[in-house]
Amino acid sequence: xxxxxxxxxxxxxxxxxxxxxRDDAEAAARKVVADLAAFRPGLDGVVLTGxxxxxxxxxxxxxxxxxxxxxxxxxxxxxxxxxxxxxxxAAFGDRLPxxxxxxxxxxxxxxxxxxLALDTLVEGRGEGRLCAERQxxxxxxxxxxxxxxxxxxxxxxxxxTGITALDTATLVEGAEALxxxxxxxxxxxxxxxxxxxxxxxxxxxxxxxxxxxxxxFQIGLDLSGQAEEPGLxxxxxxxxxxxxDDRGDVAIHTRYVQI
Length: 259
Hints:
By secondary structure, the chain is an alpha/beta fold. The protein has six helices and 15 strands. It has helices at 25-38, 58-68, 85-92, 132-142, 164-167, 175-184, and strands at 2-6, 45-49, 75-78, 106-110, 113-117, 128-129, 149-153, 171-173, 188-193, 200-204, 207-211, 218-219, 232-233, 237-244, 250-257. Strand 2 (45-49), helix 2 (58-68) and strand 3 form a beta-alpha-beta unit.
């Protein structure tokens, strides 16, 4: 089974709301999707970890759906801090098992793979939270035994990257609780995130974790502990392909896209 992890497209139909987002974010996202669609053997699924759009309007999500249209496989999305629950639910409610109202977390299955999508959005804020209600939802699902890998998809990383300016605006509530959940879970847990606009891989509470980069803009790597946000860099865009075999082994491949 092949699962691609991409993140932070920040596409917009009319005008961008984030100064750093490139003016041709739509074109950049289309190049990434074209690469996903052309990959052989074909992908079994794509996980898109938030900031799907830059403003969250109906028109933004209509554009996103058009961009994703070349993909023949299922696409599993979670909201980021630039998304809006009402319009995201309206746009993707026909293909993802969202609840009729409230938070946008859900559980999905793809073969032997379980996907738990967590809603860390706090509308109007940059940081993310897992409040008591969202923690309870995650705890109930992670406590259930599952004979296969579980992908926990969420926008805000629950672990530090060492990029100080960005770590202060990731998951500011619920990280410790989620860490205990994934540590104590009986199944193979893998955490996929976005938000940081750099590709990162980590080990957190004994579990594999990754952050997807962004084709909309990429942040420089600064591990000096400085409080100022790093500047932008023009590095090639990369995304990850996770290969799961029948024995339970996993290989993670890096795919480069020139945008």
